[in-house]
Amino acid sequence: MKSEVAVAAAIALLATIGSAQAAPCCGGSSAAPALITGDERATAGFALSQSAVIGDAPSEGLAVFRAPGDDEWTRTLRVEGALLLSDRWQAGLWFPWVQRELRRPGAHSDASGAGDLRAHLGYEILPEWEYSAWRPRGFAFFQLTVPTGVSVYEATAPGAVDATGRGFWALSAGTLLIKKGAAWDGWALPEARVILARKFSGASLGGGIGASLGFGAGRSFGAFRLGARVQPQWESSRAVTSSLGRSRTDRLWVWDTGLEASWMQNDALSWTASYVDQTLLGPARNTALNRTFALSVQHRWDR
What we know:
- 5% of the residues lie in helices and 59% in strands.
- The chain is mainly beta.
- Strands 1-3-4-6-7-8-9-12-13-16-17-18 form a 12-stranded antiparallel beta barrel.
- It is globular.
C-alpha cells in the first residue's frame, strides 16, 4: 500500500508542472549530473524510477539469477535542477528520496529515507559559437556526492533494507561531449571519481577510485526522440578493517544498457521514459544486477 501511495503522489506531482524543455539529446547516467546543455538559463526536473534486482554477480564466475519469490525493489523520486552562473559556468543539485522493499518466503520488509545528495559545478569547454560538421559541444564538470543516505554499514533492518545510499563522500570529474545533426545526435561521457575513506561503528573502509564511460545516440522524429546508450562502470577494491582483522573488498564491474523515448510537449517541457538493464552485457563482478524503469519530466527557462 505504501508503494502505491508513493507512486500516485509522484505522478500527481509530475502532472502539475505543465510547461517547458526541449527533448534532451542525451540519456541520463548513474554518474552524470543534471547539466544544462542547451540554450536555457535554468532547469528543474523530477524523475520517478523503479529498479528490480534480477540477479547477483559474484567476484568470480557467472552471475546467478534470483529465484521466483526472492524480490528486491528500489523506488526513487529524484528532484534536480541547474542554474547558469555566467555565460559558460553553471551549478546544480540532485536529491533523491528512496524507498526499498524486500519480499522473500516468510518475510517482508520495507523502509524509506533520503538518498545521497549530489552537487555539481560545470563549465562549457567547447561552446558552439559557429557551425562545424565534426566539432562537438563540450562540458566539463566536477561533482560532489554527500552521504545523506544510510549506508549498508549503518543499516539495522533485516536485509539492510533501510540502506538508502552508498554512505561515502566522493568527488567526480568528467566531460560530456555532444554532437547534433538534423535528426541524429550522439554523445560521450567519460567520468572518474575518488571515493573517500570512512569509519563506521563496526568497520572502517579505505578510499577507492572508480570510472565510467558512457556512449549514446538518438534519432528525432519531430517532437519525439528515440535513443540508446551503453555505459560500463568500474570501482577498485577497498581495504576493510574490523574486529575480525583486515581484508579487502572485491573490485566492481557492471554495464548499463539503456533505451529511452522522449517527447517535447512544447518549447519548455519534455517527458522521457527509459529502461536500463544490467544483465545484457558484461563482465559483471561483485554487484547486484538491476532492471530499471523511469519516467522523468524537465522544465526549462530560456536565456
